């Protein structure tokens, strides 16, 4: 197994950050196998979605609708409503496993690998890429 950790700057607002190029660079020339993408954070996730056409903003809106940033949350440290950020990974998992064929991630035409970070309290995130040869 081959592994690498990258640092992604997410800033101080909720964001969906496309990390497809970084993932593609990691698996380039690796042959066939599986790419596992994992974020070791309690308030971030990985999504395979379309970006650039509004779907990334739609995902953040859907998360806000489903998990509002209000005072209903028992987990209360951090900025107001931060407890919802700790629930989000149950809906947007902190990992994804993708097929790699001939050193290329086998994504659909409009699919991208994205880091989903609703937590503005942390400006940077770690992402671990692991490749298992098939």
**What is the overall number of helices?**
3
The CATH architecture can be given as: Sandwich
Query: Can you tell me the CATH superfamily?
Result: YjbQ-like
Q: What is the percentage of strand-forming residues?
A: 35-45%
CATH class: Mainly Beta
Shape: elongated
Instruction: Please mark out the parts with pLDDT under 50 across 5 or more consecutive residues, or reply none.
Output: none
Measured between the Cα atoms of the first and last residue, the distance is: 10 Å
CATH fold-level label: Jelly Rolls
Tell me, rounded to a whole number, the average pLDDT. Answer: 94
Tally the beta strands.
8
Pfam families: YjbQ
InterPro entries: UPF0047_YjbQ-like, YjbQ-like_sf
Protein name: Secondary thiamine-phosphate synthase enzyme
Organism: Dactylosporangium matsuzakiense
